[in-house]
Every structure is written in C-alpha cells, then in structure tokens.
UniProtKB/TrEMBL annotation:
This is 4Fe-4S dicluster domain-containing protein. GO terms for molecular function: 4 iron, 4 sulfur cluster binding; metal ion binding; oxidoreductase activity. One of its GO terms (cellular component) is plasma membrane. InterPro entries: 4Fe4S_Fe-S-bd, 4Fe4S_Fe_S_CS, Cys_rich_dom, HdrC_iron-sulfur_subunit, Helical_ferredxn. It comes from Streptomyces sporangiiformans. Keywords: 4Fe-4S, Iron, Iron-sulfur, Membrane, Metal-binding, Oxidoreductase, Transmembrane, Transmembrane helix.
Length: 958
C-alpha cells in the first residue's frame, strides 16, 4: 500500500505540475495583454496590504451576507490549512506517525486542525444546500446563481467537502496507531471518536489507512489542480489564488470600493484630457473597444470573478428583466478574453459590443458577431450595487463606462436620445436645454435676497458656502422647490451663502457616465475656472450627482473643495440648535415616512445617516425603512445618464422602487436627490393612476420636510386635519388665476399637499408627465457652444458653435463617424444616430418619447404633448405659444390664494396657511425671523456610515 500510495502520489503531483505551470504562465500572459492601469495600483503598499488582509482573513466583504460569509470563512480557513495538510501527507507516506515539528503535537494546533476540518465540512454542506435552495430551477432569474457554471461549482464543492472531511479521517487513523504516544482524546478531540467508530485496531491496518488517506488527500488536491489548470476561466476555483492580488491592486489604496469618481479616461495608462486631443495618435483608442483595451487590472478582475452572483442579485437592471447582469458581463468578457488570447479562430475580428438579431443572446463569448449586446451596456445606471457587493473587489462600473466611452468617442454608436443630451450640455450647459440665463428663476419670489456672485458678491470668500443649485435645482420644477427650501433653511439658520447664478453650468455627471468624457471635461474645466475666479472653497449641493462629481472628480482639475450634501449641512444645523423642528401641536397630524437612498449619496459616498437623523427628529413623523435600504438600496433608475434615455426593456426601475416604497405604507417618500425625486414622483403618479397607491402618498425632499417642521407645519394630506387645525391640506384649489408654476407632474389624483393647486384638475390623473414635457421658457439660443459662454479664459478647443469635436473648418462640420474621422469635403446628409457626429441631431430623428419621466404604458396619459418631434428636439424657433412656460412664469397678477411660491403676488396672501402648499413661501411676506433655536437633543454623533441593514433571518436566506 505504501509503495503504491507513494508512486501514485508522485505521479499525480508531476502531472499536476505539468498542467499547472503552463496554465499559470498562460494566465499571466493573458493579464499582461492589458493596458497599464490608471491610476497607479501600487501607491501606499502598506495600506493595500492591510486592506487585503482585512478583506481576506477577516472576510469583511463576505460578511455583508452574514451566514454565507461565516460558512465561507470556515471553508477558506480549511483551504489555507489544507495546503499544510497536503504537504504533511507526503511525509506521512513515508512515516505514518510523522507530525509537524514543534507544533505537530501542540494542543492548540491539533484542536484547530480538527475543528477547522469539522467546521469546513459543515460549512461546505451548508453552502451546497444554500446553492440548491436558491437554484435557478426554483428561482429562475431571481437566483443569484442564474447563469453561473454549475458543473464547476459542484466540482469545487465536492472536492472541498472531501478535503475537509479527510482531515478528520486521517487523524482518526493516526489516533489508532497503537504505539502512538500522543494517542489520547485530549490530542484528538474529534477524530478519536471517528477512529473508534470506523477503524479497526492494530498498527498495520491503521498504517495502511494513513497511507491510503494521505494518498487520497494528495490525489484530490492534484486532480483539483489539474482540472483548474485545464480551465483558466474557472473563477470559482482560481479566485482562491487571484483574489489576493485583485484586492491588493484595487483602485483605491484607502480600501474603499471603486465608486465615487469614475476612473479617468486613459490611453496606454496615461490620463487623457481635452488638451491632449490634438496630440493623440490617429489610431488612439479612447475607452475600450476590444478586450486588450482593458487594463491588466480589468483582465485580472474578469479572471477573479467567482460567479457568486452577489452583484447580479442587487443589480436594478437585472431585477427589472433587462439584459444586463454584472456577473454575466464579467463571465462573458472573461470567456472571450481567454478564447481570443488562445488565438481561437474568429475571435480577433469579433466586435466587443454589437446589436444582434432576436435569436442572438446578450452575451456571446464563444461565437457570433459580437460579444456583449449593446442593450446590456446601456442598461447600467452606474448605481454601484455590484461594486459594493462584490467580495473580490471587481470594478464593474469603471469597465462599463470605459466601454461606453469607446462607443461614444470612437464609434459614435449610442442611444439616439443621448444626442440631445450632449448637444444641450455643450450648447446650453444643462441637460434640460434651458436658457443659461434662466438659472436664477428658482429664487424668484423668495422673501430674502439670494446673493449671486459677480452681482451681489465679489467672491465667495465673504460667505460661508457656495450653494451649488445644479441644473435640476434651477430648472426642474420639483427640484426648484428643494432649492427654495434649502435657501430658506440656510437663511433661517443665519448661514451666509452665495450662488453662481448664470455662471453655474452642469457638472457633467451624466455626460461622463454616458461615455462622453470630453463634454464632461469641458464642463468641469469651465466650472473649475469659475470656482477659482470666485475663490470657492466650501460647497453645499442638493443633487447627489453634483455632490459626487464636485466632491470626487473635480480635484483632478486642480481644485480642492469641501463639498457637503444639503442633508449633511442641515443635520449639522439642527444638531447645533440653529434649526429647530417645532414640536407637534394639538392639531398636528401623524404620518409615516420612508427614505430612499440616492445611489450617489449612499453607496458612492457613504452618506446614509444624516438624512435619516433629520427625518427621525421631525415631529409627528414615524419612520419606516424599506427592505432594500442603505448599502443594499435599490436604484431609482436615473443614474448613468439613464435619466435621459428610453427605458423600453422590462419593468421600469422607478416603478419597481416606487412599489417597494408605497408598500411600506408610508405617506411620504423622502429623497435627497432631484433625479430620484423625478423618478419616484412619476412612479407614484403612475401607481395612483391605476389605484396602486393611495392618493395621499407623495414624494418630497428631506429639505422640504425639515422646512415644514421648522415652521411647525407637520400636517400632511395623509390625514384629515382635526377640527381647528390649519387647513392647509383641505384648502380649496386656487382659482385659475393662481395658475401653478409647477407642471402637472403629479396629477390631480396624486397632487401633493406641497404641490401648488392646479388651475383646473386634469380630467383624469396625469400620470407623471415627462421630465421633458416642459417647454423651454425661452426660445433656444442660437446654437452657441456651452464653451462660448464668456468663459473666464478662452477655451483652447474649437468652440465655434458645433460639436466639441467638430473640426474647425470653414465648411459645415461633417457628420464624422468617429472622433478622428477626417472631415469630408462636402457635408453629408444628416446621419442617423449611430453614425453621425457625436452631437449632430439627425434632421429626421424620430421623436423620442420621454423615458424616465413617463410612467408605464398603461398610465401614459401625458399632461402635454411634446411640442414637436422628439422630446429632445431643440426648439430653434419659439414654438407656438402653446404650452406653459416651464421656468417660473413672470406673474402678471397676484394669485388671491396662491402658493407662497407663486411669483410676485400683488399682495401677500392674508393667510398663507389657509391655502396653497404647506411649504409655500409667501413672496411678499417678510422674511421669517430666524426662530430662536431651542436646542434639541443632539444626535450622539454624525456617523457617515449607516449601520448595515438587518440581516435576513432564515439560515439560508442571506
Ligand atoms: S452599476 Fe448598478 S445597474 Fe450597473 S451593473 Fe452594477 S448593479 Fe447593475
Ligand atoms: S463580479 Fe463579484 S459579485 Fe459578481 S459574480 Fe463575480 S465575484 Fe460575484
């Protein structure tokens, strides 16, 4: 037996080495195919090592799923220990009583060996049962294992089970070796019982058992190595080796996930800026158009994916039946990478991104015209849920944005709706295509002066904060209410602030995440120059996207800012006693509220607590949490420039999230981002239209809630006010003369207490209307570029009206397909979206119905028809008078009972509470004196990191 075991073990070991060594070399060769990584992945090696050890040894990321994490830790620990156990088995083939020197018979080592063997056996059985319980055969797409390679999982699980158990079995035989001086139960606390139960007495028999089990352990390990050596894409096994490196080389040396800022655009590992465009090679590849355009870290990411599906289980696109699954994306890219690297026929020519026939799948790593369907690529909201969940720190969002960059900058192949987004950003500095001169309309009628830099202020040095209003806060009617509420709260708290007014331009978040890096950089450069000119140091923003971009991305443009979200600042002011929610009086109504975490506030920036703390001090409000909250919150569907794209595949993401919010029974769904507000408001309106939500339910920003409470107005329309209570909710609709400035985003049926009374209720509930339904307040300006607007410094790039990328020729810009296409001598006919100039709008572009703002088809009664063609069309000429102006209209006459937000009433309303919105601010009413702050019990601290949501209760329900 001994000789057989020895010979067979050595033969298997040689075979394994024969397969494994070339396999590792192949893998390294594949990873080296990638571009240099940008930014550097080797800064602060000490911090990287600590992070790696924390995430591996302590399983900090795995433990986000408590029971799975615990069981996996046992298996992980057994695997580490097993390496020594397999090595020891070789020695036991020579001497069955062999033990490790020094520690071999040391109690702690022996006890650890046995307990880790037992626990890993329990752990792997638990994981096997877990996989079976959540098998796609019963859960379908809802299973996180949907699409994973099952034979590989079974193989790994089976071998792990045998290896863990073998530790106990061999020790059972060791215990039975007759002259073993350590053969006591104290040395063999578990294995001795196993040995007694299974093995015969006698030295010879037990020696043979040791030889056999030692051989068995070696054989299992070698078979495992041979199989994984033959399958380089077997991430479920390879991650045991590659995860250490993948974590060490993660993007952020601080240990945080690859969220917040997007990875910079790089060519050959060097960051590319607008100023570099002229110096780029003609064939420079911007973004990722082929597998070898990924950095080596990207290729290591794909290699390391374990197919665990945690990312898939959290992905809002996947959850709403869209083709995007971050797991399948990683698996598809990995498979294609290794096939292409192996030189398999046809793979060199295959497009990475393409649009297939109905029969073609979304992921075709093995064959077909393309690898990834473009619908999968453009379905991503960049919410970061996948990155947040991934236990091995894969950086999905960076990879997706890099692939989008190539499609936009090189291929000019992107959803046609983005044409108008890019054009509006470039020419008008905002995605709504509104006049840059209307940026201050939101502040009209406030009972105090909002100081504008360049007019009322020389620089921002003389005030505490720059209030960054943002495009939504300046142009979108619901966003404007948030801006007004924040301004009023800051004013009441005695906080000095100024705004940039018409000098503000979009931060470029949507452009960057849609892949248009150069439009983003143009906007960022312009804003940074403005910041420098006016000495901006501290910024408060209401939009989570602006907040993220200003905080995390503008430092690359040479400016250091302290950026806070308005919920953070307001929370601080409440805790300092400078804003005091008034205790509910006798007439106050109770209401239930829930909070939706904006992805770019929560996951991307870990701001979870301040908005919740604010909401929890509101009088009369009982707080209820949605099941998916905090780190595991569910996107509203607006991020990643999805706000501006059609959502024609699967369920609407905003409907999925709104349904969850409504199902909590909350009267008020509270948000901290104007994008989320649009998406959820439209969702509520659509649900109300089909009786899926109570009429009382409304969507509000945290600032509006706080303002109402500071004013002592905690009543909501959720309950009828008791007799004698202020009748805000029951106020009659304002007469037609008090025509609302707000669009009918909430229809009559869904009108919020805080909405201004519509002139006439619509015949049937208006299901949300579109974000884009708003006609421009003014005719579009004649085409000038965003960068034409009196920049502090003249831009270095051509700015003569057309696209950022148009060649400055005397001839009309050619609709060049690629960024680098030479202009043609003659202008070509208007191209279709995928082929045209990046910013050209095809003359015959099909009307693009509003996407995000439009509720489900059943509820698609829009308030107003789009004036012409696409909702994204730019009105070059003033349209027929038709629709209401979107910017706050210049009032001609005071509304007798108008909203406090109504502009310039002739006289202040006699009783501002008795009509209009609870949150309305009477224009002519003198500024409310700042209430004498009654210090309230301040929250203990202002933790940035919210507690992880409560773990699921069922043993297998992680
Ligand atoms: S960022 Fe969000 S939408 Fe995009 S793949 Fe990840 S989880 Fe899905
Ligand atoms: S990308 Fe990460 S979370 Fe997703 S399946 Fe792979 S290892 Fe799991």
């Amino acid at each position: 037996m001994q000789i057989f075991a020895l010979v067979a073990s050595l033969a298997l070991t040689l075979a394994a080495l024969f397969v494994l060594v070339p396999a590792v070399r192949s893998m390294l060769r594949v990873i080296r195919m990638g571009q240099p990584a940008s930014p550097s992945r080797t800064d602060d090696p000490g911090a990287r090592t600590v992070t790696m050890l924390k995430e591996t040894v302590l399983h900090t990321r795995m433990l986000q799923w408590t029971w799975v994490g615990v069981m996996h830790w046992f298996v992980f620990a057994a695997f580490l220990f097993l390496s020594t156990a397999v090595l020891g088995a070789y020695f036991q083939l020579i001497d069955p009583e062999w033990a490790w020197p020094i520690v071999g018979h040391w109690y702690p080592f022996e006890w650890f060996s046995e307990f880790i063997g037992a626990l890993s056996t329990v752990g792997i059985i638990w994981l096997i049962l877990y996989r079976q319980k959540h098998h796609p055969r019963s859960e379908g797409r809802g299973s996180r294992f949907f699409g994973s390679t099952f034979w590989q999982a079974y193989f790994v699980e089976f071998l792990a089970l045998l290896e863990g158990a073998a530790i106990l079995f061999i020790r059972g035989a060791e215990f039975h070796l007759a002259d073993h001086e350590h053969a006591t139960r104290a040395h063999f606390p578990l294995a001795s019982w196993l040995g007694d139960a299974l093995y015969p007495a006698g030295q010879g028999a037990n020696e043979n058992l040791v030889y056999f089990i030692a051989f068995f352990k070696i054989a299992l390990a070698m078979v495992w190595l041979i199989v994984i050596g033959r399958n380089l894409t077997m991430g479920i096994a390879w991650h045991r080796f590659t995860a250490w490196f993948n974590i060490w080389f993660k993007r952020e040396s601080s240990g945080r996930t690859a969220l917040g800022a997007v990875k910079p655009l790089a060519v050959g590992g060097k960051t590319v800026t607008l100023d570099d465009i002229d110096d780029l090679d003609e064939d420079a590849r911007l973004g990722v158009g082929a597998i070898e355009d990924f950095s080596w870290k990207g290729l290591l990411d794909f290699t390391t994916c374990t197919e665990c599906g945690r990312c898939q289980s959290q992905c809002p696109a996947w959850h709403t039946e869209k083709p995007l699954s971050p797991k399948l994306l990683m698996m598809g890219l990995r498979e294609h990478t290794y096939l292409k690297a192996a030189g398999q026929a046809g793979h060199a020519e295959r497009a990475l991104i393409g649009k297939g026939d109905a029969g073609e799948g979304s992921y075709n790593p093995e064959g077909g015209d393309f690898v990834i369907d473009e619908d999968a690529l453009w379905s991503c909201t960049t919410c970061g849920a996948c990155v947040e969940q991934c236990p091995v720190d894969i950086e999905h969002v960076d990879h997706i944005v890099d692939m989008r960059r190539y499609q936009v900058l090189i291929e000019s192949n992107f959803p046609s709706e983005l044409n108008q987004l890019f054009k509006s950003l470039e020419t008008r500095g905002n995605p709504w295509n509104m006049s840059p001169n209307a940026r201050m309309d939101w502040a009209k009628g406030l009972p105090f002066e909002v100081k504008e830099v360049g007019k009322d202020l020389e620089s921002l040095e003389s005030v505490d904060w720059l209030f960054w209003v943002g495009c939504a806060g300046a142009y979108e009617d619901r966003g404007k209410k948030t801006s007004r509420a924040v301004a009023e709260l800051l004013h009441m708290a005695g906080v000095s602030f100024g705004v940039l007014g018409n000098r503000e331009t979009c931060t470029g978040d949507s452009a960057r995440r849609a892949g248009n890096e150069f439009v983003f950089q143009g906007l960022a450069q312009e804003n940074v120059e403005t910041f420098k000119e006016f000495k901006v140091k501290k910024v408060v923003a209401t939009c989570a996207h602006c907040f993220n971009t200003l905080k995390n991305e503008y430092k690359a443009f040479g400016i250091e800012l302290e950026v806070v979200h308005h919920t953070q600042l307001l929370n601080r002011l409440v805790r300092e006693g400078r804003l005091t929610p008034v205790a509910p009086g006798d007439g106050a109504n109770q209401r239930s509220i829930t909070y939706h975490d904006p992805c770019y506030l929560g996951r991307h920036n870990q701001v979870y607590s301040p908005p919740r703390e604010l909401l929890q001090v509101l009088p009369g409000a009982s707080y209820v949490e949605m099941e998916r909250n905090s780190e595991r919150s569910f996107c509203c569907g607006a991020g990643g420039a999805r706000m501006w794209m059609e959502e024609s595949l699967g369920e609407r993401i905003n409907m999925n999230r709104t349904t969850e919010a409504v199902d909590t029974g909350a009267d008020q769904i509270v948000v901290g981002c104007p994008f989320c507000r649009v998406m959820l408001s439209d969702g509520v309106t659509a649900l109300q239209a089909k009786a899926g939500a109570r009429e009382e339910v409304e969507v509000l920003d945290v600032a509006q809630m706080l303002l109402a409470s500071v004013k002592g107005e905690s009543a909501t329309k959720a309950e009828k006010p008791p007799a004698g209570a202020p009748a805000a909710a029951a106020a009659p609709a304002a007469p037609a003369a008090a025509a609302p400035a707000e669009p009918a985003a909430s229809g009559a049926a869904g009108a919020s207490l805080f909405d201004e009374a519509p002139a006439e209720p619509p015949a049937k509930p208006v299901s949300g209307g579109s974000l884009f339904d708003e006609p421009t307040a003014e005719p579009a300006a004649p085409a000038g570029s965003l960068f034409d607007e009196a920049p502090a410094k003249p831009p270095t790039k051509p700015t003569s009206g057309g696209s950022l990328f148009d060649e400055p020729t005397a001839e009309p810009a050619a609709p060049a397909g690629s960024l680098f296409d030479e202009p043609t001598a003659e202008p070509s006919p208007a191209p279709t979206a995928p082929g045209g100039s990046l910013f050209d709008i095809p003359a015959d572009e099909a009307p693009a119905p509003a996407t995000t703002g439009t509720p489900e088809p059943t509820a698609e009664a829009t308030a107003k028809a789009a004036p012409s063609g696409s909702l994204f069309d730019i009105q070059e000429e003033p349209a027929t008078p038709g629709p209401e102006p979107t910017a706050e209209p210049e009032p001609v006459q005071a509304a007798p009972a108008g909203s406090l937000f109504d502009e310039a009433p002739a006289e202040p309303p006699a009783d501002p509470v008795s009509s209009g919105s609870l949150f309305d601010v009477p224009e002519a009413t003198p500024a409310a004196p700042a209430p004498t702050p009654e210090p309230i019990a301040a929250p203990e601290a202002e933790p940035e990191q919210h507690e992880a949501p409560e773990e699921p209760k069922g043993l297998f329900d992680d």
